[in-house]
Design goal:
By secondary structure, the protein is an alpha+beta fold. It folds into two domains: 6-235, Hsp33 domain (3-Layer(bab) Sandwich); 241-288, HSP33 redox switch-like (CBS domain Like, Alpha-Beta Complex), CATH 3.90.1280. The protein is 37% helix and 29% strand. It is built from twelve helices and 14 strands. It has helices spanning 26-32, 39-56, 105-108, 137-149, 178-181, 186-199, 204-209, 212-220, 241-248, 253-263, 281-288, 291-298, and strands at 6-12, 17-24, 63-70, 75-83, 87-94, 113-120, 126-131, 153-160, 168-176, 225-227, 231-232, 234-235, 266-269, 276-279. Strands 1, 2, 8, 9, 10 and 11 form a six-stranded antiparallel β-sheet that branches. Helix 10 (253-263) packs antiparallel against helix 11. It starts with 5 loop residues before the first strand and ends with a helix. The chain binds zinc ion. The site of zinc ion has 6 residues, from loops. Zinc ion binds at residues 237, 239, 270, 272-273, 275.
């Protein structure tokens, strides 16, 4: 059992710490290999995907969570979106005029911010922003939890890009349980520090090579670990020809027909999955007559 494309949650009862472990393979590759991304961007998207999965586990309702980086550095924009059922999609934009990108996270996302958006299917959207002023994405996410939730949190993110077009990512999260965070007893912090130290002994080879059970046993065999059933993680894009058609309704019909006359068709490309939706003049007439909407109702 490879346990890839799965998110595992567990409790370290004695330490009052909750944990998560995620490893991505197929779901990640559909994101990082959907475009000729430089290796630095592949690494960034891989780390963001693992982190977003672990953040998804905090959703207590149906909806979406988005992890977005905006910066003045070579990577202007990178985003991973996930839904409550652990489907992922993502994209990055960078300065393609550069012949080589810097290697470090700090240089890639200079003067950057991390925007975490939680969008419930019903209810109000929540957005949290933290400055990306730590040396790694993992530390920035720890910072987010410390600032927004006042919860001591440890995040580890690992990537394996050694095999071309076979990116893998992994993440581990340890977090003090909320009820215990209010406890000022110093011994609680000691317990947390102890499990963090144990987790830091995990090598990349072990993270990518061992089964999840073996990893948890290797790290926490002296602890009482309660493991929950895993969630499977997959790639999914929410785009459709209908959604593209809906967007075209906002454009003047004459303008659309002129594009068709010049280019033969209107081509709409999804930035996440690169699906192409084509519309001809018959489609444009239907869109502006509202007939595409009727088609959707039939589905
Ligand atoms: Zn798409």
């Amino acid at each position: 059992m490879s346990h890839y494309d799965e998110l595992h949650r567990y409790l370290l009862n004695a330490a009052n710490v909750r944990g998560e472990l995620v490893r991505l393979e197929d779901s990640l590759q559909k994101i990082v290999h959907s475009y000729e991304y430089p290796v630095q961007i592949q690494r960034l998207l891989s780390e963001m995907a693992a982190a977003t999965c672990m953040l998804t586990a905090i959703l207590k309702f149906k909806g979406e969570i988005g992890l977005q980086i905006q910066s003045k550095g070579p990577v202007s924009y990178a985003v991973i979106n996930a839904s409550h059922d652990y489907t992922l999609r993502g994209v990055a934009r960078w300065d393609e005029s550069l012949t080589a990108l810097p290697e470090t996270f700090a240089e890639l996302i200079a003067n950057g911010v991390l925007v975490i958006t939680i969008t419930p299917d019903e209810g109000e959207r929540y957005q949290g922003v933290v400055a990306l002023d730590k040396p790694t994405l993992a530390e920035c996410i720890e910072d987010y939890f410390t600032q927004s939730e006042q919860l001591a949190t440890k995040v580890m993110l690992m990537t394996d890009l050694s095999v071309p077009y076979a990116a893998r990512a992994a993440g581990m999260l340890l977090q003090v349980l909320p009820s215990q965070a209010q406890n000022t007893d110093v011994s609680q912090d000691t317990e947390f520090e102890h499990v963090v130290k144990l987790s830091e002994t995990l090598t990349e080879e072990e993270m990518f090579g061992l089964s999840v059970n073996d990893i948890l046993y290797r790290l926490f065999h002296q602890e009482e670990v309660e493991v929950y059933p895993p969630h499977s993680v997959s790639f999914a894009c929410t785009c459709s020809k209908q959604r593209s058609a809906d967007a075209l309704r906002n454009v003047e019909k004459t303008e659309l027909l002129q594009i068709i006359e010049e280019d033969g068709a209107i081509k709409m490309n999804c930035q996440y999955c690169h699906a192409e939706y084509r519309f001809d003049s018959v489609d444009v007439e239907a869109i502006h007559a509202g007939q595409f909407v009727e088609t959707r109702k039939d589905q």
